Amino acid sequence: MKVLNPKTKANKKGIDEYWLRLFERLDRLCKLQLIVCPDSEYHDNESQVTAFYSELKRMYELLSHGKTFYDKETIKNFQLFEHFTNWLVGKNSVGLELDIDSIVRRGNINSWTGRFIVSVNREINLEAIEALLDLRNQSYSEIEGIFRVWSESKNTDFNHWYKNEVESFGKGTLNMYFRHQQKLYELWNNPEFEDFEALLSSSSVRHVNMMLKVLGKHGVEDDLMKLLKIEEYFKTANFDNLPFLHLSASLFASIARKAAAGRKKPPNRGTMNDIEMISTFLPYCDAMFIDNECASYLNEKPLVDNIGFSTKIFSQARREEFMQFLDGIEQSASQEHIELVTKVYGESWKKPYVTLYKPTK
Question: Its domain of life (predicted)?
Fold first, then answer.
């Protein structure tokens, strides 16, 4: 954004020309209907806490052209539903059917885009921004505490920490569900109950409610038996083929190993968000450009051998390789395809929109 926006201080000081080349390449490939760059809640949240919300929104909407990922908890629920159902019918070793269209709003992700982008601007909600910053600070405090535990353990076994993360997910999900049930009980039995915010369903509560419904459809009627079955699932299922959990557990296990091996500095404030984003979207993407630290984890053994997906990973450290990858996409397109795009959209359509932030007369 800064390389195109003359209003930014960074633009006036001079920007690495790589980012201009990258924008031109991405914009052209999107217009040639050769790549799709969906936007997501992460784009929205990350841009809200900057001084350039509307400008960043304009950029990611240009490249996504109306293709938006569902929120992370909805995608997790989709995966958990299929994984739990498979386990219930004795097919726990079966991989999930990861259909990209199922997690993207508004139609077929491979459909050609229209000429117009319809966008609605909203007022900046300072309370929402403050809540996002508070959540980020809370997440950072939590990972600082966990990092100290990892450091003190001196246990550098990847599988140990991977298993620990998987078990923590199951225990945490059930604990959150039971806490919510306790709050509901207090509401019904205490006329002076005022903690209504605690009654809002967390993602863990929604996950368990979904599994309770699945069990009901499979003939389990007793409520206690349903909960025992869910507990059994979290204790016995193979979670290597539950993508979001497998990836997040693997990334945290990689950090834990480094902490136990003597790393002094905990991950930065954006790490939790990065891990959430990667573990949610990586299975559905052909390629991702992420920060150097997370890219290094994904390229290290044993994680690199156990990712289970063919997604190509790029970062600042491999940025020219990313450019070559993008160049190869256009080179692989047939002449007939390029000619059809020109026929449908016009010759000027393929020109990158480098004047995106220039004032119109």
Answer: Bacteria
Instruction: Give the DSSP H or E segment for 69.
Output: strand 68-69
For the CA atoms of the chain, what is the radius of gyration? 23
User: By three-state DSSP, how is residue 154 classified?
Assistant: coil
pTM: 0.90
In sign, the C-alpha dihedral spanning 319, 324, 325, 327 is positive
Nearest to 52 by CA among 305, 361, 285, 356: 356
pLDDT tens for 225-266 read: 999 999 999 999 999 999 999 999 999 999 999 999 999 999
- Across the chain, mean pLDDT equals 91
CB 180 within 8 A of CB 208: no
Using CA atoms, how far residue 31 sits from 4, 68, 153, 300, in Å, is 18, 17, 52, 35
Specify the DSSP class assigned to residue 353.
Answer: -
Would you give the distance in Å from CA 167 to the centre of its chain? 21
Where does residue 106 fall: left (phi above 0), alpha (psi -120 to 50 degrees), or beta otherwise? left
Fill in the amino acid letter for 20.
Answer: L
Closest alpha carbon to 204 in 228, 239, 178, 173:
173
Burial grade of 177 (CB within 10 A; 0-12, 13-18, 19 or more): buried
